[in-house]
Every structure is written in C-alpha cells, then in structure tokens.
Amino acid sequence: MKKNLRVVAIVLARLGSKRFPGKVLAHLHGKALLMHVVDAARKAESVDEVVVATSSKGGDDRLAIVAQDAGVSVFRGCESDVLARFVYATHEYQADIAVRLTVDNPLVTAQIIDQVVYRHIETGADYTCNFLPSALPDGLEVEVLSRGSIDILAERAKTAEEREHVTRFIRTHQTEFHMQNVVHVGVDHKESISLSVDTPEDLLRVDEVYHSWKRVLAHVR
Fold first, then answer.
1. What is the pTM of this model?
2. Which CATH class is domain 7-217?
3. SS3 of residue 215 by DSSP
C-alpha cells in the first residue's frame, strides 16, 4: 500500500509553552506526554521513522535528551518559525510523506495515524487530516502532508501566523490543494469532553478519563 514512500512522523515539541511550561515532559499515567505521542507513532504500521522536532535553544536541551535516551531521532531548529523547523526536519529525514503530530494530543493512537496516512496514500492527496470535519473529540488530530505540499508551504507561507501554525496556509487556500479528510466512526463526536492538553487543568481532566477513553479509542475505525 505504501508504494515505496518514506513516511516520517514529525512530533513538534518544546518546553517553553506559555500556558503550561514544561508541558511536553509532564506525566500522564507514569509517562511523559511526549512519549505517549512518540509511542503511538512508533506503533503505527505506516510510519517508517519518528522524529522529535524541537528548538535549538538551550531551554529545550532536556527535551532533546529525553527523546534521544528513548532512541528517538531529534531535529533542532528555530523556536518561533515552527514551519521552518517542520520543513527542515522533513528534508533532513528524507520524508516523501510527513505526519504532523503535537504533544497536545497524548491520546492519539497508532490506529488513527494509520487510517489518515493510508487514506493520504490511496488518494494521492496533497494534505489529509481527520478534523475537517471530525467525528472525534478534540485532541486526536492528525495531519499528513506530501513532500510537494511541504515545499509549497516553505515558499508561499509568509505571515507570522502561517509560520507558527504549520498548515494554516493550506487550510486558508483549500482550493489550491488536493485535500482529503478521514471521518472516523466508533465514537460519538458530540461527546463534550476535550482530550487535548493545553493547560495544567486539561492534564488533570485527561488524567481522570485516561483509561475510559483508551478503551473507547480501541474501537475507533
């Protein structure tokens, strides 16, 4: 199914979150949020390599060490220009297809990642996601980009918002890209809970529902 395409999962992470400093290394059920996302990507059959893309600032040294000690590849680049960091990481690790993941979404699963990647490959899309619209709660988003669309972003995304929010340009120029969306079934999208972690309060909430939602997500298809 992969047709000799190299799929690299890029986990964008840094310690300097304004609303939750150190969030990426905060623990959820005994494991850093970063490693929840990394382990999901590692388990995905569609993914050839997982890379943690963090900043080159000294404040992110600890994050890089944690990833390296876990045997994860690390790319370090600009802190504020997140798009540049993402683009250079895909080039460094020779990705034909890149999966964009964030530590905000620690409950994302290998199954969800695979479903989005395989839809992307099957359709030959430029960009594939699972939230335009979504049948899942917030916090399970996956984005997949072709090498061609990544190169377009590198050249045409100019504003500060487009450089900070990696795929903003694609989503505001949808008619210029072949886009696909995966609508997972197996869970009611009207569930009021969010599974995204942006603040310490979010982490407490997700911690409380961790086991119940892991069971639910096992049936998502």
1. 0.96
2. alpha beta
3. helix
